[in-house]
Amino acid sequence: MAEKMTYVEASREALREAMRADETVWCLGEDLGRGSVFGQYLGLQEEFGPERVVDTPISEAAIMGAALGAAMVGTRPVVEMRFSDFALCATDELVNQIAKARFMFGGQSRAAMVIRKPTGMWRSSAAQHSQSLESWYTHIPGLVVVCPATPQDNYSLMKAAIAADDPVVYFEHKNIWGMEGEVDRSHTVEIGKAAIRRTGADVTIVSWSDTANLADEAGARLAEEGIGAEVIDLRSLWPWDKATVRASVAKTGRLIVAHESVRVGGFGGEIAATVAEAVPGARIRRLGAPRSLIAYAPNLEDQMRVTREMIAQAAREMVK
């Protein structure tokens, strides 16, 4: 039976249930005892104690390195990086150690863990707290990359990520912590399987994270105008659901890929290239942020945003 939860409550409940079910699941990061920055851990230290909900020093490299050692001896850490930008201080541990551990040890050890990286623009957080860097990690063999867009997916994908035997880089969008939605605790989601949020025969719109919600809203507006947009929320970027996207574009003949991250070098380019190779003659367009730093001033910050109207207008232009 479904119940209403916010995006942040959904992931917290998924983590709570995983910790109750498996004593090897634990959390570490800065200020988890008080719930962390956005309340992702509220009440967990009271229930599980400070040895399983661990407050760490302010050192991302130490947090990530400690989690690697703990994972390699059989526990399943959930690593809190507070902001995806801050996690860059632990990139060496993640990219050169965690991602490669299973390979380097010939499968005798592994680094099963979830690395949570709150991501994206959150009003007036400025250049060092607003980046969307998910495409960086899709480039690294050994890492799984997940980007839930709804409370249901933040619940189900958190459960799937904790159960995975590979390191999962888990991007939660800061702008939708308060988003409410129905969550069915029995519903499971497979990492690597996209969600078709809306069906249509005129144009395929592919996105992820909060931009997938904007794409769905754009699809609703287009439907009122007689344009059938098929909206696909990838949910995970590695692995990503190539089959679903290819099948959709083979039907519509048109593809729009929309993401909040910088368009240059963004994962949208990988999707566009894959579709171009698989569906000859398909019309393809990418929407992403300009290659510019994100300002504190709201009027300048807004210039970086991919909006619902931008997505809808791109679709209108493609179906003319």
In words, what does this structure look like?
The protein has 320 residues and is of the alpha/beta class. It has two domains: 2-184, 3-Layer(aba) Sandwich (Rossmann fold), CATH 3.40.50.970; 195-319, Rossmann fold, CATH 3.40.50.920. It has twelve helices and 14 strands. The chain has helices spanning 7-21, 44-48, 60-72, 91-98, 101-104, 134-138, 151-163, 209-224, 242-252, 267-278, 298-301, 308-319, and strands spanning 2-6, 25-29, 53-55, 76-80, 114-116, 144-146, 168-170, 180-184, 195-198, 203-207, 229-233, 236-238, 254-262, 283-289. A seven-stranded mixed β-sheet has the order 3-2-4-5-7-6-12, sandwiched between helices. The protein has a five-stranded mixed β-sheet with strand order 9-11-10-13-14, with helices on both faces. α1 packs parallel to α7 (151-163) and α3 (60-72) packs parallel to α4 (91-98). The protein is globular. It starts with a strand and ends with a helix. The model has no long low-confidence stretch (mean pLDDT 97).
- Widest β-sheet, arrangement of strands: 3-2-4-5-7-6-12
The first-level CATH class name of the largest domain: Alpha Beta
What is the CATH superfamily label of the largest domain?
Thiamin diphosphate (ThDP)-binding fold, Pyr/PP domains
Helices, by number, come to: 12
Q: H/E series, N to C?
A: EHEHEHEHHEHEHEEEEHEEHEHEHH
> Which structural class should the secondary elements be placed in?
alpha/beta
Global Rg: 19 Å
User: Could you please say which CATH topology of the largest domain applies here?
Assistant: Rossmann fold
Q: How many structurally independent domains?
A: 2
What is the general shape? globular
Tell me roughly what share of residues is in helical segments.
25-40%
Strand content: 15-25%
Which second-level CATH architecture of the largest domain applies? 3-Layer(aba) Sandwich
Distance between the termini: 44 Å
Chain-averaged pLDDT: 97
According to DSSP, the number of beta strands is: 14
Biggest beta sheet summary: 7 strands, mixed
Unreliable sequence segments: none
